[in-house]
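can u do me a favor
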């Protein structure tokens, strides 16, 4: 809904005489949740405008992205002789994905190229809306005619070309393949950027800079525009979000950086590097390490027990680091959720979190009339939507967590993910609030809602 409202107000702000395009609005409000839709969204953004001029460059980026994904897909370790064959990369499955993406792109993302030779008016219909023929933006009829489509054979040519080049340099060393494929892919993106298909670097700060970031379609949390298939999780200073593989592949491996810490000198999407936030460093879980999970139960004021245990563990470790540093995922319920946010998002020590927790229990848990009274308490709780006064708890939470500066929950430079269980609405339906917005999907997931 916010996307639809933003688009509607933007249409009013422009003062255009053209009617509101509900089809375009529906397309922009849809969240891609499969590889096909990822590719279709990528084509829609990169080929907007000068479609024919940018087509080869767009296909080249798509081809190198497919190769990059095929070689280093998690959970797949094909033999070297299979990897080094182009037919093993651009196989029937990938061809089918590309065909579906092209059909979706042509149906909803490409404007017909017909131009009236007399008036110079261009047809505004897409393939899906071309049943009536060529039409003006006002809806007036121009001429009968069909929509002309194309293909992405250039993507397969790119796969063959890159693999042939790399074969001449290395044999079957997967790490060398990874480095060289990433290098070719980055070069393809830079070439597409020169043609206007990708955003250009914006190294000047100011109000216009912030407005440009808000309107940047590539600053998306649904698709990683560094590789087109990864899960975007890490927000760069320029507001573009990339996946973990792109974070690893585009690190120049600066000396002195510890294992699990990666540094970027510029953005792979826009090429920006002149802002004070660069170079950008972030810690992620090392590839060979296990996943460390902490589950925190609720229990009202009794939640102090788990804090005492965590404080004791923190002392036994003896490294002077907050206990949340040692976990990759922290999940909390009720008061356990408060503890999870304290040690996971705000990086408080267990002792600091205990102090804040005591103040929350003292000032925030103000029960409503009769809800804690013996015998009649259950009747009072049944008649009310909550046991405690919401305003008092909200005020106590704001006071407890307002000391540090405001923290951007999504895209943090932090390997720890935090989830807090909750209920949604008055029906008490269970839900989860997460520090990484990842809904459940069958294909590589997209970012749509906190609730999963």
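np, heres the sequence
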């Amino acid at each position: 809904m916010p996307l639809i409202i933003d688009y509607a107000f933007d249409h009013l702000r422009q003062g255009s005489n053209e009617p509101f395009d509900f089809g375009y609005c529906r397309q922009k409000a849809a969240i891609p949740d499969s590889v096909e839709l990822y590719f279709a969204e990528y084509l829609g953004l990169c080929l907007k405008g000068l479609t024919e001029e940018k087509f080869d460059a767009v296909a080249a980026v798509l081809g190198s992205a497919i190769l990059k994904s095929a070689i280093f897909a998690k959970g797949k370790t094909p033999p070297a002789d299979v990897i080094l064959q182009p037919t093993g990369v651009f196989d029937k499955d990938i061809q089918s994905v590309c065909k579906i993406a092209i059909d979706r792109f042509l149906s909803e993302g490409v404007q017909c190229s017909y131009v009236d030779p007399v008036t110079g008016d261009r047809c505004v219909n897409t393939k899906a809306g071309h049943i009536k023929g060529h039409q003006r933006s006002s809806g007036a009829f121009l001429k009968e005619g069909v929509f002309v489509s194309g293909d992405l054979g250039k993507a397969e040519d790119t796969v063959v070309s890159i693999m042939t080049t790399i074969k001449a340099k290395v044999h079957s060393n997967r790490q060398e393949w990874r480095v060289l494929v990433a290098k070719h892919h980055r070069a393809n993106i830079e070439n597409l950027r020169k043609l206007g298909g990708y955003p250009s670097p914006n190294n000047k700060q100011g109000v216009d800079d912030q407005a440009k970031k808000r309107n940047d379609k590539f600053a998306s949390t649904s698709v990683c525009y560094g590789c087109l298939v990864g899960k975007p999780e890490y927000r760069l200073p320029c507001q573009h979000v990339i996946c973990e593989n792109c974070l690893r592949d585009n690190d120049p491996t600066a000396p002195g950086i510890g294992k699990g810490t990666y540094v970027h000198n510029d953005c792979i999407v826009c090429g920006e590097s002149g802002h004070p936030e660069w170079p950008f460093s972030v810690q992620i879980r090392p590839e060979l390490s296990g996943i460390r999970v902490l589950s925190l139960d609720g229990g009202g004021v009794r939640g102090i027990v788990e804090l005492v245990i965590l404080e004791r563990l923190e002392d036994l470790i003896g490294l002077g680091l907050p206990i949340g540093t040692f976990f990759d995922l922290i999940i909390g319920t009720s008061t356990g959720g408060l503890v999870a946010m304290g040690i996971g998002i705000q990086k408080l020590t267990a002792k600091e979190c205990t102090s804040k927790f005591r103040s929350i229990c003292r000032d925030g848990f103000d029960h409503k009339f009769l809800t804690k009274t013996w015998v009649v308490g259950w009747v009072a709780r049944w008649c009310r939507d909550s046991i405690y006064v919401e305003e008092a708890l909200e005020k106590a939470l704001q006071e407890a967590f307002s000391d540090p500066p405001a923290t951007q929950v999504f895209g943090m430079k932090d390997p720890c993910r935090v989830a807090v269980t909750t209920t949604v609405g008055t029906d008490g339906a269970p839900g989860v609030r997460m520090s990484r917005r990842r809904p459940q999907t069958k294909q590589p997931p997209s970012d749509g809602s906190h609730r999963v």
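The two ends are 18 Å apart (CA to CA). hope that helps!!
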